[in-house]
Amino acid sequence: MVGNITNEYGYINYSEEVLANIVGVSTMECYGVVGMASRNATDGFWELIRGGSYSKGVKISYKEDKLHIDLYIIVEYGTKISVIANNIIQRIRYNVENYTGLKVSSITVNVQGVRV
């Protein structure tokens, strides 16, 4: 379990897969993102993930009540990468904190490629 919330009614535990799916869907809603990138460990190439497996381009770590998110994406050619990254960060922070109640400490957006 990555994150948990305790209140007078009980416990809520979030798995890494749930948080990664929230982050992946939030990322794909942003303009300029072509897809998530997954690193193939055997030959070191980055490949574009298509379909519904958006969580493969996301790494989540939860230490000392701090949520750290690393995101690997591929962007569209001709778009401004800094604007795309800022939009992604704002959307992920809002969605994760709004849906789960967990506070996001840091979000790192790694652009792994540009597609035409």
From TrEMBL:
Pfam families: Asp23 (PF03780). It comes from the Bacteria. InterPro entries: Asp23. Belongs to the asp23 family. This is Alkaline shock protein 23. It comes from Clostridium acetireducens DSM 10703.
